[in-house]
């Protein structure tokens, strides 16, 4: 904030407070000393207003409000660049609250962080902590039940794009993931998109009419097999999904598969490194437990 706007806010605020105080005292001074039967001279629907002074308790309450305003503006920021006598900020309050919370819960996290993810996933109290972390940080994409949605993986099954072992889950949480399914329209053309889409659907037992599966297989071998494998079972090192099962991240209809091949997919899993290693360990344990029902 520039000095001009800071000064503008200070002058405007103090002027308004001064005018309010003047109006309150001026009207109080000109009022009658006690109750009267005289009216203000106007009525509405048979209702008239008496010309009585403001009740004393109400007047005192207004004065106390003005005093409170002056004290507040002295102690806390509110007058342009003036930080307040207490030098309070939202950031400092937030950091203090986080520090208190970390001091309180650090022993709990340390206890479970020292245990392997597989063991933590068997402790109901630890799973409950991980579930709350998941609800806060992950449910907006994967859903409150972790079953995912269109473009967001289901975390309760045994199908993993990058691997479902504890360390891989933690790696995913720390660094996030960036999908890299390229667009193939410019390379193989519309006929190639149709044919390879039909062939990809056939790998999981789905039928498509009006496509050349032989040509689709050839196109697949030349363009897709390098990531998804010649047998279509995918590659977790690359995040290339298995095309032979019935799990489809972006839909299995002919139109949806064509859309994927035509324009590619670039889903993004954001990094959760801001949570810290302790919380990542708890969160990984919860995610791991979702696909290992016997561990719950």
UniProtKB/TrEMBL annotation:
BP GO annotations: proton transmembrane transport
Residue span, Cytochrome c domain: 125-204, 211-291
Keywords, ordered alphabetically: Cell inner membrane, Cell membrane, Electron transport, Heme, Hydrogen ion transport, Ion transport, Iron, Membrane, Metal-binding, Oxidoreductase, Repeat, Respiratory chain, Transmembrane, Transmembrane helix, Transport
Residues annotated to bind heme c 2: 181, 224, 227-228
Gene Ontology molecular function, alphabetical: electron transfer activity; heme binding; metal ion binding; oxidoreductase activity
InterPro entries: CcoP_N (IPR032858), CcoP_N_sf (IPR038414), Cyt_c-like_dom (IPR009056), Cyt_c-like_dom_sf (IPR036909), Cyt_c_oxidase_cbb3_su3 (IPR004678), Cytochrome_c_Oxidase_Subunit (IPR050597)
Pfam families for the chain: Cytochrome_CBB3 (PF13442), FixP_N (PF14715)
The protein's required cofactors: heme c
Signal peptide: none
This protein's GO CC annotations: plasma membrane
PROSITE patterns per UniProt: CYTC (PS51007)
Annotated transmembrane regions: 7-25, 57-76
Cofactor note (record): Binds 2 heme C groups per subunit.
Binding positions for heme c 1 per the UniProt entry: 138, 141-142, 269
Pathway: Energy metabolism; oxidative phosphorylation
UniProt subcellular location: Cell inner membrane
Subunit note: Component of the cbb3-type cytochrome c oxidase.
Family (UniProt): Belongs to the CcoP / FixP family.
Function in brief: C-type cytochrome. Part of the cbb3-type cytochrome c oxidase complex.
The protein, known as: Cbb3-type cytochrome c oxidase subunit
Protein source organism: Halopseudomonas aestusnigri
């Amino acid at each position: 904030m520039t000095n001009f706007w800071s000064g503008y806010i200070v002058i405007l605020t103090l002027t308004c407070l001064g005018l309010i105080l003047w109006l309150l005292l001026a009207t109080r001074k000109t009022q009658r000393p006690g109750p009267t039967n005289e009216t203000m001279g106007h009525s509405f629907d048979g209702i008239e207003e008496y010309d009585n002074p403001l009740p004393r308790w109400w007047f005192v309450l207004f004065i106390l409000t003005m005093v409170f305003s002056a004290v507040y503006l002295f102690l806390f920021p509110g007058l342009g660049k003036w930080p307040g006598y207490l030098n309070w900020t939202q950031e400092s309050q937030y950091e203090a609250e986080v520090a208190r919370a970390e001091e309180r819960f650090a022993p709990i996290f340390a206890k479970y962080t020292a245990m392997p993810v597989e063991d933590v996933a068997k402790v109901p109290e630890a799973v409950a902590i991980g579930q709350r972390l998941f609800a806060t940080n992950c449910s907006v994409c994967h859903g409150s039940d972790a079953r995912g949605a269109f473009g967001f993986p289901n975390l309760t099954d045994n199908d993993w794009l990058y691997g479902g072992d504890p360390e891989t889950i933690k790696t995913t949480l720390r660094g996030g993931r960036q999908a890299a399914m390229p667009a193939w329209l410019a390379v193989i053309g519309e006929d190639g998109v149709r044919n390879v889409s039909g062939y990809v659907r056939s790998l999981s037992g789905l039928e498509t009419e009006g496509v050349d599966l032989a040509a689709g297989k050839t196109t697949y071998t030349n363009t897709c097999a390098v990531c998804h494998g010649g047998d279509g079972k995918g590659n977790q090192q690359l995040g290339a999904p298995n095309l032979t099962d019935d799990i489809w991240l972006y839909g299995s209809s002919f139109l949806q598969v064509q859309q994927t091949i035509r324009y590619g997919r670039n889903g993004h899993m954001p990094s959760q490194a801001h949570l810290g290693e302790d919380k990542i360990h708890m969160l990984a344990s919860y995610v791991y437990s979702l696909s290992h029902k016997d561990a719950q």
